Amino acid sequence: MAASAPAFAAERPKGPLRRAVDRFLTNRAAVAGVAILLPIVLAILSYDLWWPYAPNDIDLLAMNKGPSAAHWLGSDGVGRDVMARLMQGGRISLLVATVSMAISTVIGFVIGAVAGFGGRFVDSVAMRLVDLAMTLPPVIFLLVLASIAGTGIVPTIIVISLLSWPVLSRMVRARLLELRERDFVVAARGMGAGLPHLLLRHGLPNSIDILVVYATLQVASGILLEAGLSFLGMGVPPPEASWGNMLNSARSTLVLESYPWQWMFPGAAMVVTVLAINFVGDGLRDAFNPRADLN
Amino acid sequence: MSQYIIRRVAVGFFMLLALTVLIFGLLRLAPGDPIDAYINPSVPMSASDLDALRVRLGLDQPLPVQYLAWLRAALSGDFGYSIQRGGIPVLPLVLDRIGPTILLMFSGLVIAIVVGIATGILSAVRRNTATDVSLSVLSFIGISSPAFLTALLGLYGFSVMLDWAPSGGMLTPGAPFSLGDLLSHLVLPACLLSIAHSAMIMRYMRASLLEVLSQDYVRTARAKGVREFWVIVKHAVRNALLPVITLIGSTIGIAIGGAIFIESVFNWPGMGLLMINAVTRRDYPVIMCATLLTGACVIIVNLLTDIIYAAVDPRIKVS
């Protein structure tokens, strides 16, 4: 008996979190996404330690030079190093994307959760609001908000946050409507739990999978939205670098035709980052789905 | 059925009304004096004249009253004057730009539907082969690359390097109008516009066809000796198309977003370019009018797809 006890313990079924991690690690695309993303983020965060040029250093002797040993990715119209600007632009793009992701996740969760737990009246008001916000094409809504907020890093963050929450609040609401009828939630209400307690103790842990997946994918979409806005000249204004406003320089035919390194590298950096984040997000979605093991 | 249509139309109508409230509210929040929208900027006015005009236009009234007045004017086609372009009324300015945008979007949509459905079918039929995998990878890239980047790359590749297509505009300036000229300007932007959309349609079509192919009636059709080609085309694809119809309707907004970027890169004289210029110069009357018209189009298209969907699929229980 005593000898069989350790064997029994070793065969204890894995916990749900452990199985989710296993599922994530067996997803090759997701692991590749992490492997691509980590070096990019590390390089962006540490570039000023190992790269000799600063993003706004002007070198009038090196205007519009192609990639070389000194300037790996070339230099732009006023002799600024494209590599340094690419790294600094990555910082700004990631900053805008992650901060707006955090804000829109909070807004989306709170509105979705209040709609789900708050009763029919609150629910229908909140959902009509969401419907309305989703009627306008996202880019049009983005432009209207941008025309009010103006340009700059903070207005860009606000605009992107305000645009992005409706999808999340719909998903959270659907989850919580289902949750509301479960015995443990009914019991908590019966014992007099208030809305904040219900949201934080029951709503939040039970929709954490939705939140994590949304947050991941929202970083990718935030990068694209920032780039789109800056590309049109309504996001992060120069001289600050961002991937979008580096692409903006290609709206001039001269740059587009003659100096492709000035816009192709930021474009490539953006697409690779966004692809990697999307792979990770898809991997997380599958990892959180317990039914994925059955297939 | 007719009850369903009436309900959907009523919902659409209320959405439109709510949209006008939203747009009016948002743009009254905006910095700047709303009176600018009502005066012809090329005519100088004194401060007392402005105050008199303000009273006459009702801008001293509370906001709800102002909203109703604005709505009444808008319904009769009066959206005020463009602030940036010395006193041109807004509506004709916007209406002028709708044609090119519809032409661009419609061409892009047709290409996207044809390419998306064809590659989706191919991908599902050749499931898990090299064809399927490479098409899936391509569609993933298509969905992840933003319209402005594909537009720039397309412009660089096909206009600058290969010189196959003109680099922008809708017609050659100064040349007499000809269909060939229009088409040569249209092909590249329309194809680039269709990339993201066809990638989405392809993924939907693939998933939907795979689900249909695993159903019993498809097995029955195969068992009674129908040839594989006809099983796919006649039995499976027809049912698999249904969810794709809804997708096309619900992604029209994304297509509009893509069109704005394409128009900006290719200098296509449509609503997108107008909207971008209006936003950079804070020309609120133009923004309000263009946004409202676009929103109305999206609501109408969604309404139509819902109705078509219900009409085509008798399984939809009108609820």
Main attributes?
heterodimer, A: 295 residues, mainly alpha, MetI-like fold, 74% helix, 0% strand, globular, disordered N terminus, B: 319 residues, 2 domains
The CATH topology name of chain A reads MetI-like fold
Overall average residue pLDDT of chain A: 84
Q: Output the CATH class name of chain A.
A: Mainly Alpha
Average per-residue pLDDT of chain B, rounded, comes to 81
Terminal residue distance of chain A: 37 Å
- So how many helices of chain A? 13
What is the CATH topology assignment of the largest domain in chain B?
Answer: MetI-like fold
Terminal Cα separation of chain B, in Å?
Answer: 10 Å
- Named at the architecture level, the CATH assignment of the largest domain in chain B is Orthogonal Bundle
Low-confidence stretches of chain A: 1-5
| Category from helices, strands and their pairing of chain A | mainly alpha
Q: Give the radius of gyration of chain A.
A: 24 Å
* Helix/strand class of chain B: mainly alpha
Please write the CATH class name of the largest domain in chain B.
Answer: Mainly Alpha
Q: What is this structure, in a nutshell?
A:
The complex is a heterodimer of chains A (295) and B (319). With 295 residues, chain A is mostly helical.
Strand-helix topology:
The complex is a heterodimer of chains A (295) and B (319).
Chain A: H1 4-10, H2 16-26, H3 28-50, H4 82-117, H5 120-135, H6 138-149, H7 153-180, H8 183-190, H9 195-206, H10 208-231, H11 243-248, H12 253-258, H13 261-288
Chain B: H1 2-29, H2 47-57, H3 63-75, H4 90-125, H5 130-144, H6 147-161, H7 179-213, H8 216-223, H9 228-250, H10 252-266, H11 271-280, H12 284-312
Helix pairs in contact in B: 1-12, 4-5, 4-7, 4-9, 4-10, 4-12, 5-7, 6-7, 6-10, 7-9, 7-10, 8-9, 9-12, 10-11, 11-12
Detailed description of the structure:
The complex is a heterodimer of chains A (295) and B (319). Chain A is mostly helical and 295 residues long. Chain A has one domain: MetI-like (MetI-like fold, Orthogonal Bundle). Chain A is built from 13 helices and no strands. In chain A, α3 (28-50) packs across α13 (261-288), α4 packs across α9 (195-206) and α6 (138-149) crosses α7 (153-180). Chain A is globular and about 75 Å long. Mean pLDDT of chain A is 84; it is low at 1-5. Chain B is mainly alpha-helical. Chain B folds into two domains: 2-75, no CATH class; 91-312, MetI-like fold, CATH 1.10.3720. Chain B has twelve helices and no strands. In chain B, α5 crosses α7 and α6 (147-161) packs across α10. Chain B is globular and about 85 Å long. Chain B starts with a helix and ends in a 7-residue tail after the last helix. Classes of the chains: A mainly alpha (295), B mainly alpha (319). The A-B interface holds A 128, 131-132, 135-140, 142-148, 220, 224, 227-228, 231-234, 247, 250-251, 253, 256-257, 260, 263, 267, 270-271, 274-275, 278 and B 15, 18-19, 22-23, 26-27, 29-31, 140-141, 144-146, 148-149, 152-153, 155-156, 160, 167, 252-254, 256-258, 260-261, 264-265, 275-276, 278-280, 282, 284, 287, 291, 294-295, 298-299.
